[in-house]
Predict the structure.
Amino acid sequence: MSLLLALLLVPVGCMLVAAVLPSPRAILALCVAGAVAVAGIAAVLIPSALEAPVFAIGRQLMLDALSAYNLAIVMFVFLFSSVYALRYFGPAARDGSFGRGKARRFGASWFGFLASMILVLVSNNVGLLWVAMETTTLASALLVCLEFDQPSVRASWTYLMICSVGIALALLGTFLLCGEARNVTTGSESPFLWTDLSHVASRMRPGGVKLAFLFLLVGYGTKAGLAPMHTWLPDAHSQAPTPVSAVLSGVLLNCALYSISRFLPVVEGATGGDGWAFRLLVPFGLVSIVVAAAFIAHEHDLKRLLAYCSVEHIGIIALGLGLGGTTAALFHTLNHSISKMVAFFCVGNLARDHGTRDTRAIGGLLKTSRLAGAGLLVAIFALVGMPPSSVFMSELWIARDGIAGGHLPAVVAFLLGVGVIFIVLLRPILGMAWAPAIAGRATVRARALDWPLIVLPLVLLGVLGLWMPEGLQDALTRAAAVLGGAP
Amino acid sequence: MVDGLVHVALLILMPLPMLGLINRVKSIAAGRKGPPILQPVYDVVKLLQKGAVYSRTTTWLFVAGPIVALASSLLAALIVPLASTTSPFGFPADVFVFAYLLGVGRFFTMTAALDTGSAFEGMGASREAAYAALAEPALFLALMIVCIPAHSASFSDAFASIPAAGGLLRHPGLLLATLSLGVVLLAEASRIPVDDPNTHLELTMIHEVMVLDHGGPDFAFIQIGYALKFFVLGAVLVHLVLPIPASGWMAPVLFVAGQAGVAITVGIIESFMARLRLTRVPQFLIGACVVAAVGVLVLFTGGRP
Amino acid sequence: MSLNADLLLLLVIGIDLFIGSTGRLGARIRACALQGLVLAALPLAIQGTGVLTGGERVLHTVLAVLATLLLKAVAIPYFLMRAMRQSGVQREAEPEHSLHLSLLLCAVLVGLSFWISAVMLPPPEAGSSPLGVPAGLATLLVGLYLTVGGRTELTQVIGYLVLENGVFVIGQRVLGEFPLVVELGVLLDVLVAVMLMAVLVAFGHRQDPSAAGNGAATPVGGAR
Amino acid sequence: MSSILTVALVLTLLSVTLFIVAASLSALLGRHDRASLAVGTAGSVLGCGVGLAGSVMALLDGGTETVASAWRLPIGAIQVGIDPLSAFFLLCIFLVCGLGALFGAGYMRGWLGRRRLAPALAFFNVLAASMVAVVLARDGVLFLLAWEAMSLSSFFLVTFEGDRPDTRRAGIVYLIASHAGLVPLILLFVLLGGPSGSFAFDGILAAGAPAAVLATTCFLLALAGFGLKAGFWPLHAWLPEAHPAAPSHVSAVMSGVMIKMGIYGLLRTLTFLGDPPEWWGFVFIVVGVVSGVGGILHAIAQTDLKRLLAYSSVENVGIVSLGLGLGLIGRANGNATMAFLGFGGALLHVLNHGVMKGLLFQAAGSVLHATGTRDLDSLGGLLRRMPFTGAAFLTGSVAISGLPPLGGFVGELLIYVGAFTGAVELPSSSALWPLVVVPALALIGGLASACFVKAFGVGFLGSPRTPAAASAHEASPTMRVAMVLGIVLCLAVGVVPAVALRLVEAPAQFLSGAATLPAIVPAILSAAMRAALALMATVGILAVVRWALLRRREVRQAATWGCGYEAPTARMQYTAASFADPVLEPSESIFVQRIVHDGLEGPFPRSAHHERRMGDVVADRVIGPAIRGMVASFKWLDVLQQGGVPRYLVWVLLTVVVLLVWQLGAF
């Protein structure tokens, strides 16, 4: 299917074009146009991929229900973030502080980032997956240090270092797994392709596969931001320009988790399907939630707050997978991406309006910049799982599936952890809402572009909390079927 | 019908002289002759004929206080059987209504006291509130000891069943109930050792200081209401102690004798006991609650009667 | 399996120990380059030189060997040396442990990796070098040790490269050949290294490298 | 399925629609305060009127009906239904919310021009709608949704004056509390829905009563989750913070009905759990005694009028809990009379408390409106200046002290009789438990009298202590209308208890399983009515007598007799704290006292300040330290995020090592 290839090549092409375009504003426009184009291709591809897997380049690329579902989320967030980038860098592009060099660097890395994420999702080859994953690190590290000042370079350095080591471990895991697979593949079967791996899984030796999975889990888990390997995340997410933060938090983590989850059916097939691999995710999920709670309690930087909140939600998704709530976890992925994206947009606007991201220094949230303030408040309410946001629904769903699977202690710990985060995350935000507006700070009117960027996703969250469209339900079921589930 | 008439007659004739009797006993114990037994009646009649002086601070509530206090005591007195085991106004569960009627009277007496805006009367009201709250459980527990054997929360049934249960002496629970009720009587009727009706130091008074500002008919109402309250609680005590028959001429005689006994006992207590320190009063009342609680436990040991 | 492969793998381990025992950055970088050279030679040693003259995967192998050689043995060490000179740091500032201790630790790590591959992993297939996994593992562990224990960014990068080399060796041992993706991976490592180098240079310009990377101390940032 | 029920259900749903439309409109009219006030109020009042009709119809019909919709929630389903239990609580909601909205229309005018009113009106309507939805929900997910909407909307109402520090504190405390309560509720519904695989109440009921262990777990979870909302001691700590902070008509709704949603939830959960073991009833009795006595003692200790009322709500849910305990014991022992009396008394008290606490909060609000303060010791003499408000507060005070002839008495009487019935008719091993209720209720009643004499006496009687109190003005007409309606309701329940009985009859039978109305109940209620009427008649007669006596006599005005002291000032009146002291003295050790005292210094001291605050023992001794401890214990995790790249890598490696060691056996 050539469309699948186009999905990859269009961003690559945009990347090359962005690297040579002369005007920053043209590059920003290209970002939007390119994102629209890729989203359009994805929109054509996804329905058919949900029905049956789509292949390209001799089965090296594949888009099945699971990756199509994730691709939809990626494209959604990416599209919105591209528009937001226009809004975010627009003023700087006009006054010259977003110069040509920076713009080119941004445009190229932006599309490189998109291409690598798409590659993560569409690769049918575990090696290719690894390469794509590494590429996302590279592209996003460039984006993180776009400003190239001390903190951002430092954050970028930490990010590169930790994730590279992590991903090296994942490579080791990949080698080990493929080594095991190589012993049992016959004929045209390749030890590198998902499609074949799942066929031969039952013939592999459980011990070797388990060892490989441990490395894969820690390796890709580092990239996904599961605690205690999450340490790079708050720095990188808070130092990146806001559109980048939104994509990092909103979808890059999902991609990493997607990589782990892809291995689950293979490992399960090799180990007799007793849920060993799924169970391994549970402690990571719980630890992530607890660690996030602990750090949110002391944090004052808005973007770092959101970054830790991502650690929490990735933990919840991992927990959901581990407890047998595969569908719920996938639904939660969507909800988290949307809400985190909006939260970052709002924080970006607020930080620009107030000149700071320190929760203690911002007051009159709902007065000084009304739309961004209200949007942040609503987004945070959604993120902490307040109904009627869909996050509440997916968390409830995970709890239900966990109980149905007989994991009472884990569910109790999960609910308690989420409850603690509810409090510690809302406290600074409400503090900003209640604190008197800083004297002399004029009310900042929202631009026309801000309205759809902030309001649309929030409305979507509310709608999804109260109404499950037939199509989404179907997609979730099909995507979950790819993963199977913990017994 | 006759019973009802006797009831009303006793209600009209006895309460105020009982107070006179107490004073007489105290005087005699102090070696004085003392005022006539009917002195309280004379006082009330005189008060009823007087005009009134109202504080500029007060409102209609100040006037309402004595009226409600008297009305509630009157109704309570109609509920409790006097010289009989039936009362003209008895009904199922009247025990609870009885206690709450006394509560209404107290509520309005206290608010009337606060209406004057005087620190003294506030002081009295505050103490009244505290001690009444502590006396309440004792009263209810004691009444339960009486009512449970009768399987009915009505005074008529309960009093009728006491002789069947063997009276006071055969029933240790009943004895404890009597003790407890005695304390409640002293507290509710503001007698020594809880309160001293004769003191002239406002700082130490409870009931008297609450009604300092009332005069004329209002004060008369208060005095009558107060006497009725004493009388009706005394009546309950009498029924616990003496086997008052359901009817017949013996009933009024026994009852009047019993009430006189109550008055004399109170008079003797007042003569030979000092007022408790205010901080000790709660202990005294909690003690009454504990006694009544023990009475309930005694009642339940070996199966409920 | 030829003797050559065993010798090469032994050499890899030896280089690990050397890197662990020297405090001079220049020496470490050179050792790294040597290790890259060895790694480039490894496929030839395993598959025999005959692979260069015939067979279906000639081009493939040649390219892999050349890429490895070029990158791991030449380009990266060159960049590292440049970065070292620019940052002005010649040796590990005040090594945390004495170098003897460091050497001892590396020796223990090497021992550990032999033990792990003997006890925990399945025995090697007949005909393949028994040294493959232990050597790879040892390289990996020493690399990790250098990364974690490194006090300057340069040491950490060197450690990371050693670690990569370890994964590379293990991959070769486990998979027996270079699949396309591993080659891509090698290329990527270069990119990573270049990135790291860029960062390093940035640090060099902005002095105070010792405080770098302390995320918790990052002040609450401005409008971003 | 009867057509009356269908109509009733449609009417209640219509009321929800009206609330939501009113909420949206008043929010959209954001900048036009007057318009949004008018629209919001009209919507609430209209909705409550419509809903009231529906709920009364359903209550009189006494049947059960459930309707499922085809709407797809992500999980769960939209299912609503009405049965006697729902209908009764709907009645309470519509009554109290309607009066609250009416009062609020006048009350909110005080903020005109100073604050945007639209949010308060919108959230008030949302609160009403969500409470109705809680009661109508027949699916766990829908229930939780409505429950959280209720918490959230009331949170925004509590923080209406978010710029005040104490309000902020209250808001945070409230948020923490309501979320802490949500966790057990989620677990509860997940556990209940687990076996049947769906959250629908029908499904849960159809799955049959859960096994004993599961039932007990569910019971305890419900007690924790719903008890927190209901304000059971010691889960009450949020209540005295949150309720006073809200605008007064909202406090009225929160105290009057919102905390009763906790009671509703408990009762609804009990219907799922099959036949209750006896000890559940004992638990309720213990909870009731502790809440009642603890609540009222803390109420007496308060000098803040609205805080006092909030603590009194804790006391009153304690009384409700006593009734529930009796009902459960009755059911466990198969004694339908006792069960009916217990549940009936509890429900009647729910209704009564809604009305009278609504009235009291409205009166307190009108005082706040007029004087700008809630501090009792800054008030005084208000009855002269605000006769309507004073009468309302007095009526509420008498009623909430459980005194005849007002409503509060009837509910307590039923509970007393229920307890007595239990003490007489149960096997003697269990009979002591109901007997405990009698002295407990008596003590609570006595203390409540003391509390409200203090509140009314210090606040409304005597002479004004501050200029603000001296210049107080009467409430506006709409506020007065609301209060008069409240007074009438209080009186009506007390004087015509048969009507009140008709309202609780169906739900009490539903809960107790009594096939018919126990014969003793009408007898008692008619007796109560006679007592109330007789009392009123006697008071009337005596008033006439007094009038006749004084008609021809001299009636003079003078200063209060000061025992010879000639220059009394208003500051010399007895204060709220002094009044409370003798009552609290026996129990002083349970309070956490904060005494601020800058003592007299030197031979000629200028002025001195002495202040005593009675803190909440649970909040100050347990919850506060627990939360601080938790936050402090998070500190040690900071080690994860210190030390830069090398240290971060150590964590990654450590994870690998731990995993390897942990899973060593798996290879």
Notes: Helices of chain C lie at 3-21, 25-47, 58-87, 99-119, 132-149, 153-175, 180-205. The interface with chain D takes residues 120, 144, 147-151, 156, 212-216 of chain C (CB under 8 Å).
